[in-house]
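stuck on this one:
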Amino acid sequence: MGNPMAHFFMFMDELYVAGAWMHKSNVLQRKIIILLSSIFICSNVSAESLREFHQRQCKQESCERAADMLEGEQHAERIVMLGDRFAAALDRLTVEEDNKPMLGDAYLLVLDDYFKREANNGIKKGMTDYMLALCADHYHDYWRNRKMWWPSDDAGRPDWSTIYYYIVDHYYGYCLRQSL
């Protein structure tokens, strides 16, 4: 098979000779492009998550961060599982109107379900029912009135599993932060 870089340069030279790549007056441009191409082709790209980075570095603070991130990932996986269960058991007639989700009503149902199922993990509701109702209104207005979009399945019906995840995310990411 040979050296791939040699094949690359031979190919580039053939393009150059054929006149399809650049004119002879652009030799400097050609050299720069070849140099940059070879750097990108030869570079060894590696990606890791921030949690993996902290685990690899593992000093005291870094190890604690990695453990917190792993716990957050596991929590997110549980929320996805809870969303699937919620969607499977949901009576759509109570939270949909003309194939559109009534997100304010669903918000309260989702969080009620979430806190009941996560009670064993020490997760409790962190605000009053009045504040939750305000959060539900904010969530509904944001998705239905401002974005005019919501997660839906292939048939165009609301995707309650994904909506469940977004509601829990809104609770932690917006409501609790606003109440602090």
